[in-house]
Structures are given as C-alpha cells and as structure tokens.
Amino acid sequence: MKTHIKICGITRPEDAIAAAQLGANALGLVFYPSSPRAVSIQQAIAISNITPPFVQLVGLFVNASYKEMVKILAQVPLNLLQFHGEEPSEFCEQFQRPYIKALHIKENSDLNEQIAFYHSARGILLDTFNPNLKGGTGETFDWKLIPQHLEKPLILAGGLNAENVKQALLQIKPSAVDVSGGVEESKGIKNFSKMRDFIQAVQSIK
Q1: Domain ranges of the chain
Q2: What is the pLDDT of residue 127?
Q3: Nearest to 132 by CA among 34, 12, 8
Q4: Percent of residues in the chain assigned helix, strand, coil, to nearest 5
Q5: Rounded to whole angstroms, how far apart are CA atoms 19 and 194?
Q6: 181 with 138: CB under 8 angstroms?
Q7: Closest Cα to residue 7, out of 78, 55, 42, 44?
Q8: Whole-number Cα distances in Å, 78 to 2, 59, 107
Q9: Which of 8, 15, 92, 197 is labelled catalytic?
Q10: Which position among 15, 92, 127, 197 bears the catalytic label?
C-alpha cells in the first residue's frame, strides 16, 4: 500500500490548494494558540472551503477543553482529529469523529503499552519528545526506538524533509508521514518546491 502524506500547519488557502494538487492526502490545521502555525476558525473555514474532495482535513489539538472542541467542530468540517497533549482516550472518543493520538518517543518507553490506552484510535503518530514543545517539534528522533510491531498503524513525524524521508520509509515503513517545518519558507508559510520534492520523494518508494 502507498504511504499517505499529510502536510501539517497549513495557514493559507493557496498552500492548501498547492499541497492537494501535488498529491497530499491530508492537510493539517493547528488549533493550538501557542503554535506559530495556529489558525483561527475563520482561517480554517476559508481553507476548508477550497479543499478538494477526498483530501482529509485534520485538526490538531493540544489539551483543548471540551467547550473549545465543540465550538470548532460546529463550524469547521474536520474529517479527523489529532490529539497532541495528555488527552485520555475517553476525551478523544466523545466527538463522533475518528482520531489519531500523538505519542512522543523517549528512551526505554513501552510504546505498545501506551498505545493500549488508545484502542479506539485510527492510528498513532510518533514524534520527538521535547518537554518544552507540543503540537510538533520539527526535530527527528532515533527511529531505532520504534518497535518492529506496533498495535496500530504508524504515522511518522518529527523533522522529516525531502532529504531524509526516503530513508525513513525504507527503515520504518510507516502507513503515513506527517511534515510541517520541512516544507516551509517560514513558520506557517509553505514552500511549493519543498512540498513538491517531499511528495515526490515519498511517491518514489514503491
């Protein structure tokens, strides 16, 4: 099966259109106010209005309140939720949408034990652990820390770019890859050439 591609941290409709035309399967909208890539509800609606059919809109949240979640979901047609904080599975499950849970890689962490707490998740996103950053670090981690057999489909994130994603795919064979900073001109502003090169690199692996 082909590896799916998510371009995260989309803040402009023109970047969403470009990513979709280049072959991205999913676009990530960050609803975490502390992030430099955070979008308002109005920005998210504008992006959703031009997103082509069959391209998923993913909402990224970090320890959002139930009230905040409901307000956003009432106005933005998100297909998938992505939780990057300490949300328990009971919180993630209550919004009648499929979700993925981000886990941050640490030395000696038992990933399958952590995954067991999120049995209802559609997949698990693995990112670099940084105690000062949430919602995506932009840093790579040691891929050897990933067990050979995970109980859920794996989405690989953390410092990916056109130069290292081939190695990641050959070594890890994830179900999907998630990139943000690796395809940007500046935080929240995507670069067409970098997105093209990244997507072509992923698609070149058969």
Answers
A1: 4-203
A2: 86
A3: 34
A4: 35, 20, 45
A5: 10
A6: yes
A7: 55
A8: 23, 6, 34
A9: 8
A10: 127
CATH of domain 4-203: 3.20.20.70
Q: Are 11 and 31 in contact (CB under 8 A)?
A: no
Give the model confidence (pLDDT) of 40-80 as tens digits: 999 999 999 999 999 999 999 999 999 999 999 999 999 99
Secondary structure (H, E, C), 23-89: CCCEEEEECCCCCCCECCHHHHHHHHHHCCCCCEEEEEECCCCHHHHHHHHCCCCCCEEEECCCCCH
Q: What is the pLDDT of residues 188-204, one digit of tens each?
A: 999 999 999 999 999 99
**143 or 168, which is more confident:** 168
Interatomic CA distance for residues 75 and 95, integer angstroms: 14
Closest alpha carbon to 171 in 205, 129, 197, 124: 205
Which residue spans within 151-206 are E strands per DSSP?
A: 154-156, 176-179, 184-186, 189-190
Side chain identity at 87, as an amino acid letter? E
* pLDDT reading at 129 higher than 70: no
Nearest to 174 by CA among 158, 151, 155, 148: 155
Is 127 an annotated catalytic residue?
Answer: yes
- Phi, psi for residue 150 in degrees, rounded to 5: -110, 150
Q: Output Rg (C-alpha) for the chain, integer angstroms.
A: 16
Confirm whether 178 is a catalytic residue.
no
Chain-wide mean pLDDT for the chain? 93
